[in-house]
Amino acid sequence: MTDWAGGAFGERARCVLAPNPNIMTLDGTNTWVLREPGARRSIVVDPGPEITSHLDTVADTAGEVSVVLLTHGHADHSEAARSFAERMGCGVRALDPQHRLGSEGLRDGDVVAVDGLEVHVVGTPGHTSDSLSFLLPAERAVLTGDTVLGRGTTVVAHPDGELGAYLDSLHRLHALAEAQEVTAVWPGHGPVIDDALGVLDYYLAHRQERLEQVREALREMGGAGDDLPRRVVEKVYADVDPVLWGAAELSVRAQLAYLASPPR
Question: 223 pLDDT exceeds 70?
């Protein structure tokens, strides 16, 4: 396992690692502080959990905060967003209205500009329905939240998450990497990835491999029974720590729904 503690990346980003490590969050949640060189105000992405020591460090790192952005609404990313924004005197922008503070939301194609820094919003649903990624053209980097992790692969959180949408999102990010608009991935968990194209190639290949394994499992065991998702997990994810089988079952349910849907 690579040691990961956050730090400075490019000329415009600092990652403050939250002290909430576990089997799902890896080393903890990455809170990103973005600021144009020489600028007064910053953008904070995913303040993370309600842990005072972490939020104090984020506040010290960020200085004056113009806005808080959320990649999605899972609590390990969003729990402290409102209280932190109130503390810093700014709003929270998110795709899901329930996570906003203030009238401004976020949607695909938006550009958030603060003191010369531009953050382009890329809709990347699939892990959750409200998942967004944030592209920094000046760094050729993309903040992916849980859509692409710094280590391992992510869960498609069925039923809110949807595999077809997730594959489309991976292809969208892959196109940006292929065009060299993105060369680095700054994820919501785990270390930064300097080979964006390579990791997206891997993510797409991994999803296709898992889908074929699920198809084969269905051929062998038949497609019936309330316990089918768990039986598929036990067969297809036998190489995965059983502690993660609950999360794997969410992805299997998403895979089964995808396979049962009309061809895309």
Answer: no
